Predict the structure.
Amino acid sequence: MQREAAEIREEWLGRALSTLPADRPAAEAAISGLYRLIGLDPPRFHWVSSPFAALHTVPPGTRPRPSETAGDLFEWALPPRFTSLMGRLCQELDAPVRWLHRPMDDLIRREVRDSLSRSAEGSLLLAFVAATGEPNHRGRYWYAAQCVSWVAHYDALRRVAGVVFDPEHHRRLELWATTARSCGWWWPHEDVCVVSERPVAVYTEVWGDDGEVRLHCADGPAVRYADGWDLYAWHGTPVPSWVIDAPSVQRIDQEANVEVRRCAIEHMGWPSYIRRAGLRLVASAPDPGNPGSELRLFDMRTRTRVLLAVNGSLERDGRRRRYGLTVPGFFDDPIAAAAWTYGLSAEQYSLLVRRT
Amino acid sequence: MTVTLATLSQRTGLAVLDHLEQSVSIPVVDGLQAQGDLIVIPLPVVASSVRVRRDAGWTAVASGGLELLRGAAGGNPHTLVADPGTCRWTTGVWDSEGLAIGVFAGSAVVYLLHPEHGATGCTPGTYVVRRQREHEGHRARFVAD
């Protein structure tokens, strides 16, 4: 059961991060169906190349109210109506399931729905927020409604638990499912709906216990749209492009954001950064429990020093990896600095018998 | 019986990287041990800063092992492995440094297994497991290797 749920999760994750061109006829038909469900005629469709473009272009032939030009989505009339539509559908789908299939529902909620929500938040939504500052807190409801996570949950209930939804519920769920797998995000107005294409490249890595992914690419942008809009990310942290394309000691030293600095140094490699930056060696000492290896403490910047340590176990190439740990600047003794990283005193840490 | 990486790997079904020596007996150590970003400390050593809460709930470590912490980028958990009925684990712990993830108590040897770092054995006793931190700006962040 768990394996089947995980397979369905991977299927929907693939759709959420799809880099295929939108299936415009399918998307327009499904969105039109959703408009009808809130009592409106189908809109005109205005396609844009990226979410970024959606926030900065005005559909031809419309003169939006001032509040609708920027991204303050919840000044808009329609998104709240669509989110309540989705909320009601979930309630109605949940009602029979919560009693009859409780354990299965819980499993699917955890393995499929929550995992996919976190993956979506850590990938395309993160890229959008990092680049635009949008959406605000309330705007997130609209992106959550478009997330594959809840659609995948009910799809998994159908396929893994054999839950049968009545035809009307099935039809409504299918409208949301079709939009989720046919296009990028959409922004509904009464007469026109702006719809985004999907990215042309997305690079992620798995990081969570339930298959959650986050953005990561060590040699280029982690997300890229056809109009050239892109975002760089290092193990889930959005970073400026220089961190990936041209990390340099000078740029690292000028960078104010400590997280960005760490990403850039990790990308360059700690030993290489220490050498190129010419950091001053404060002291070195044998690493307790790690025979033949030294702990070396370097001056880094105001109130920060870095401890260069050596792994206790071998890498595949037979070498031992060196890694840097930043420590408060008041340490002069590498043993005391290493001890601090584990909340110990130098005396306690020097009792270390073995490091693997 | 000699316990090797191969034995533990077989017992738990957890794979270890094939460049690690599989057939050498795993050293069993009495004292502090570090495995990557985790450290195992005999409770008496840090008794002044770590306490097991009175209402702490304990879990028996089953034969498949108990996952303590997963490394960065998905894989590679640190796993506690012990003969059934010989080890229990609790997260009901107070630590003045805020680094303890829990305490385990073993009446026989308890092993700590990791796919990249290999394995190490702890003599019977009660141990605190702490994460590693580093200094970032005005705060500390956990290390994940």
Notes: Residues 109 and 153 of chain A are 6 Å apart (CA to CA). Chain A has a mean pLDDT of 90. Chain A touches chain B at residues 205-209, 216, 235, 258-259, 262, 289, 304, 311-316, 318, 323, 325-328, 341-344, 348-349, 351-356 (CB under 8 Å). The longest strand of chain A covers residues 294-301.
